[in-house]
Amino acid sequence: MPQPELPEPAHPEVDSMLSRKFGKEVANYFSGSPLNRVSFLRTDHSFLLAALKHPSTSFLLFDNLSPLAKDPTQLEYVNFDDVKPLIGENPYSKSEEAMIAEYNSTITIPQLLFLGLDESKRSGFEHNIYYGSPYFALDVTPKGSVKSEAEKLIEITKSRGLQFVEGRMHMSLPAPQAAIYAQARALLDWNARNPFCAGCGQPTLSINAGTKRTCPPKDMASVTNRSAIGSTTAEPPAKERPDCVTRKGISNLCFPRTDPTVIMAVLSADSERVLLGRQKRWPPYWYSTLAGFVEPAESVEEAVRREVWEESGVKLGRVVIHSTQPWPYPANLMIGAIGQCVPGGEEIHLKHDPELENAKWVSMAEVKEALEVGTSGLGEDAGPGYKEGGLRLPSRTAIANQLLTAVTGGFLEEHSHAPKM
Amino acid sequence: MPQPELPEPAHPEVDSMLSRKFGKEVANYFSGSPLNRVSFLRTDHSFLLAALKHPSTSFLLFDNLSPLAKDPTQLEYVNFDDVKPLIGENPYSKSEEAMIAEYNSTITIPQLLFLGLDESKRSGFEHNIYYGSPYFALDVTPKGSVKSEAEKLIEITKSRGLQFVEGRMHMSLPAPQAAIYAQARALLDWNARNPFCAGCGQPTLSINAGTKRTCPPKDMASVTNRSAIGSTTAEPPAKERPDCVTRKGISNLCFPRTDPTVIMAVLSADSERVLLGRQKRWPPYWYSTLAGFVEPAESVEEAVRREVWEESGVKLGRVVIHSTQPWPYPANLMIGAIGQCVPGGEEIHLKHDPELENAKWVSMAEVKEALEVGTSGLGEDAGPGYKEGGLRLPSRTAIANQLLTAVTGGFLEEHSHAPKM
């Protein structure tokens, strides 16, 4: 499988509130969401409607996956009155059963996501025992039957001096905002990427507040088309669609996809050196940890050993998982691990899977120094203490940096349950 | 999302060769594959053909995802001569480029997977620096244009006294065989489950030795159909298919899907009790750890805290990842963790997401005793030391058992990097 894209460093506020709440746990960038997803309420249309219309509710807009923001360091939200012309007074007026029964593939329903409740804001919104300010995301990409309403909404936001921030290189949001952005982006991308059913090839319908896609058994499109051309006879029944296996029970195809990946700091057998690799497109002297996708029916520990061997020839023994990082480009879960070479397994061979331009063993001291003076984002300059020719590494918001910090701080030695080989 | 299915216990040989090679690392059932996947060789048709035809090569057959076996404790493999009538003399005669250019959606190509090389068997098979006995898997489910050849192959295997073992309740394979079975089943299921492109709705083609599906730009079906009805004019060009976003770069839709799930042993704030839950359909007194799917843009640690709160109301602080288990029904990666309650967070509330019939706090001593006398598979009786009414738990091959074993053995205390709250 292709190399997963390396996390781009972002804002230094990585530890977020989690570091205060949960001791020394490393909370990587894009995690640490302030929202309670209350996922079990996503089918409750009375809850969703109340949340949608509450004055404290925030809507994060995306145009082609670019979020609305003041600038790249600050997301901007709009309110229900802003989005009402696009989504209508009540997009939850029908039950999911009715939405499925009345499905019409020619009608564009703007993709709306319920993200969760920010319980730190006692805004007056309450539903049973649940409370907090509701957050939604909405795809305003102009398309289909809602193209002109979406364009109008985009114009209105631009007239307020706001922008849809493109790309991801310059995303430098505070960690809690980054987590909200990541959740919204991942789910909008998944919906946009999967308009058809992989089981039968027919168009699908978004339900569960944007977290499920279902393959309806009928399509009213034929009925609508007949009406449109002025048929005066009784309307024919909706067209039955071909059978689909996803309608016969629970199918993972109906749920969002997340691709597990491994990313690992690798120690020599004597724990004195660290394996680093680089891709050709990176700036000079820039290295990082190795990474790759987990394959079907592989444990994380096996995937770490396989990827390290395939990319560098190095043979690992024990593997310990350190922390994880969601990565919404488009849907990765980065599982960070520390691996250690078997004695004699350090020889580098780049020709199994030639994805890396180079890999090399670096002394613990050099890694420590680079963590102090040589870190930056891929597109950024190194800090003031950096001297040309020195090792460069990803910044603190990348899990690679956290893994390297952990191994230079003696992470493996502290794991007495996973003894040194 | 729905509750992931609980791992079924299987054969007690769980530690496999990994426990010897890598110290105390917990290698869960379905991991510990003896095969080197050499994933970078999957596009090399000369390698695949040589591997296919080598006398040491093993083919694992599946009929509707049921593997060929002597009995539920022993897989049985066939050789190239057995499968040749179904797959032909050389299924790798065309390059992938040619296969895509000549794609014809009306022709059924039996799904063939290259699984890897068993390097412990010096069988004489060599390719550059790679060696070992090759393993393939083949879907022999009778269908499409190869229905009768597939039926013949099934008949031949049955005449040898072999069977296609249905279901998974009675799978009790030695761990290395279970890992091979898991890899094959997961990939065959993924291919069978995704015959259409989720991006555009058109049928897809298997490439990369069964580990990728691509959306071809043309379909020769129209050409073939014209020829079939005896057209004597020059053949028309293959039908151009509508544009598809997956052809414009790397798309995760083309690669196998693995759904990350969390499963966690939960300790009270004072580490003296363990939280266990049960589903209604389980036998009396049978409990296990809680589990659930990781959501988009969620770290594993966040998913653990969310799922525990949603299912039981219990509020967790720190979370430490313990080990992982591939689970091929259909494509889960179980990420096993240990979580600890925040002080005062132990109150149980089952009504957020009512998936559990019950959840309760159990003393460390009771869990220890149940791990000794009360473990079994869901469909099995408890062991001889069990007394009616005592706690029952999953057996050693389930990661839930490994997590409970770890917490009763002081796993968290050993994690000095993740201090007690």
UniProtKB/TrEMBL annotation, chains A, B:
Annotated Gene Ontology cellular components are: cytosol; peroxisome
Taxonomy, superkingdom: Eukaryota
* Boundaries of every Nudix hydrolase domain copy: 256-384
Question: Which biological process annotations from GO are given for this protein?
Answer: NAD+ catabolic process; NADP+ catabolic process
Give the EC number. Answer: 3.6.1.22
Check the record and name the SUPFAM superfamilies matching this protein. Answer: Nudix (SSF55811)
Cofactors that this protein relies on: Mg(2+); Zn(2+)
Catalytic reaction equation(s): a 5'-end NAD(+)-phospho-ribonucleoside in mRNA + H2O = a 5'-end phospho-adenosine-phospho-ribonucleoside in mRNA + beta-nicotinamide D-ribonucleotide + 2 H(+)
**Keyword field:** Hydrolase, Magnesium, Metal-binding, NAD
Supply one GO molecular-function term.
metal ion binding
PANTHER family annotated for this entry? NAD-CAPPED RNA HYDROLASE NUDT12, NUDIX HYDROLASE, NUDC SUBFAMILY
Give the record's family classification.
Answer: Belongs to the Nudix hydrolase family. NudC subfamily.
Name of the protein in its database record: NAD(+) diphosphatase
